Amino acid sequence: MLNKLPIIVAVALSITVTSCGSKTTSNDTAATDTTKTANATATKSILVFGDSLTAGYGLDDPSEAYPSVLQTKIDSAKLPYTIVNGGVSGETSAGGKGRIDWLLKQHVDIFVLELGANDGLRGIPVAETKNNLQAIIDRVKAKYPKAKLVMLGMQVPPNMGAAYATDFKNIFPTLATKNNMTLVPFLLQGVGGVSALNQKDGIHPTAAGAKIVANNVWGVVKGIL
After folding, report:
1. Cβ neighbourhood burial of 124 (10 Å; 0-12, 13-18, 19+)
2. Tens of pLDDT along 160-180?
3. Which of 28, 33, 138, 201 is catalytic?
4. How far, in Å, are 132, 139, 149 from residue 101 at the CA level?
């Protein structure tokens, strides 16, 4: 089971406007105000909502988690987006449904959903997980109907049973299609099951693994930014 850690919330980029000269005319003030408004609206928000994989559980520095690696890629591409890390270790789909409204108090332009892994490890019925995830999606769509939606697919180990593993895997493409979401088929592609890229628990990526996870997301998400 993925462990509990506090929410790690990324801080929005600060904007500083410096004016030169000893005198400021009304036109200068108006121009400055316009610039501030333009800059304030230029940066859009990406909420990554998930569990310990998003929170960066077990990493020496939370900035090594895949959302922070994504932010670096976004900054390098000079794209006007700031990532808000809404990951909580140990989170289930039911827990996410219970706290999503709090995070939706801040504006969301792109919503990235990464939940379900803990449900799968606990053997929670697939129908229950699916309904919880749909409820989360519905709340995002109701609050921010113009937001772009991204689903991060998950899988469970085969020891959970072949039927359960298959049904669980199918939750994510099914919901993505139903809700017109951009789909990352499997978040841990290239990392899951690779001991060198995971911590001792065999579940959470190392810093090197998190970079691969970020690449999995970036390869899909960059197309909608």
Report:
1. middle
2. 899 999 999 999 999 999 999
3. 201
4. 14, 8, 16
Q: Give how far the C-alpha of residue 44 lies from the chain's centroid of Cα atoms, to the nearest Å.
A: 14
Could you confirm whether 101 is annotated as catalytic?
no
63 is catalytic: no
Work out whether strand 44-50 and strand 182-184 pair parallel, antiparallel, or are unpaired. unpaired
Cα dihedral angle (104, 107, 110, 116), rounded to 10 degrees?
A: -10
**pLDDT higher than 90, residue 88:** yes
Computed over every residue of the chain, the mean pLDDT equals 86
Query: Residue 25 corresponds to which tokens in the numbers above?
Result: 């005319």
CB 217 within 8 A of CB 152: yes
Residue in 45, 51, 52, 93 annotated catalytic: 52
Q: Give every CB contact of residue 63 below 8 A, 6+ residues apart in sequence.
A: 56
* Separation between Cα atoms, residue 182 and residue 151, nearest integer Å: 6
Respond yes or no: is residue 26 known to be catalytic.
Answer: no
Q: Is 184 helix (H, G, I), strand (E, B) or coil?
A: strand
In this predicted structure, what is the pLDDT of residue 2? 57
The total number of residues shown for the chain amounts to 225
Instruction: Dig out the tokens for 171 from the structure.
Output: 């939750």
> Cα separation of 97 and 91, whole Å?
10
